[in-house]
Amino acid sequence: MSAEVAQSPYTLIDGKKISTDIKNEISEAVAIRKKENKKIPHLAIILVGDDGASQTYVDNKVKACKSVGFHYTMMRFADTISEEKLMKHIDHVNNDDDVDGFIVQLPLPEHISVERITDKIRSDKDVDGFTNHNFGSIISKKPLLMPATPFGVMELLRRYNIPTEGKHAVVVGASRIAGAPLSMMLTEQGHATVTICHKYTKDLASFTRSADILLTAVGKPGLITADMVKEGAVVIDIGTTRVEGPEYAKGWAIKGDVDFKNVSQKASFITPVPGGVGPMTIASLLLNTLRATEARNP
Within a domain: residue 185? Predict the structure, then answer.
């Protein structure tokens, strides 16, 4: 189901609308499974500590589960929990046949290794797509559960009928959560020619100006300015940074990596922040959970 393209100098890529479409499709699939007496998807979430942003993300995931008819289990632990005890809880969820999808909300306290915790999660339940097994499967012909944020970006491009084959895509930011897997997906699934830039890249603008599709995931507000963007480029802003100041009604605002006001005048398609890629991350998480359920319980 493709999104409707508006007639304007640029087309705004509406992540809220597309994520709602996806959640409606998932709700329909769950209703069919229920009617056919098939297993209902079950997502388990572990939250360590009381970080405000993490709590908000988890609350949004629980709300999304409820909206599509998923079962869910929420587990909260103090930030003083030992890595060993957290590992035991992960083992318990790994071995629970009723749980189809499983995430550990990041960040974790400094005394707990993100890498060790991530790789402890069973790959067929890893709906964040962070394990080495799922990360590596991106370059296979049959990828498993893909990292949620890049998966959401690819879905936006697909649903807006934005061609990627043979296009030059420039990805700014090489994190394992976003930039690195996205560059692999654009190559393997999108058949694009991909350049990946990072904090050590010299003369960043010389690369971004050549991009047919520019994707940025750095977390540096205003990094991408109009002079760094080619006329007619597709611009996908994955960066989210909380910026505080008296000029904002709430005292703060969420800003992306792109100078939206000026860059939008040169772009053919562009995502807003907030309301672009952000809503797609949770939608992709739900979609991964449904797929994990279907794989284990057809």
Answer: yes
Annotated catalytic residue 261? no
Catalytic (active site) residue 61: yes
For residues 59-72, average pLDDT: 96
Residues 137-190 pLDDT 10s: 998 878 889 999 999 999 999 999 999 999 999 999 999 999 999 999 999 999
Question: Do both 212 and 114 map to the same domain?
Answer: no
Tell me the CATH number at 249.
Answer: 3.40.50.720
* Alpha-helical segments (H) within the chain: 15-35, 52-68, 83-94, 114-120, 132-137, 148-159, 179-188, 204-208, 260-263, 278-296
Catalytic residue (choose from 14, 23, 100, 105): 105
Question: Catalytic one among 23, 61, 167, 255?
Answer: 61
Range of the domain at 235: 147-278
64 SS3 class = helix
Please confirm, yes or no, whether 79 is among the known catalytic residues: no
The total domain count for the chain is 2
Are 101 and 203 in the same domain? no
Note the pLDDT of residue 8.
Answer: 45
- Pick the catalytic residue from 100, 124, 126, 128: 128
Whether 158 and 267 share a structural domain: yes
Same domain, 170 and 206: yes
User: Residue 144 has what pLDDT?
Assistant: 80
Same-domain status, 182 and 264: yes
CA distance 174 to 114: 17
> Left if phi > 0, otherwise alpha if psi is -120 to 50, otherwise beta: which for 15?
alpha
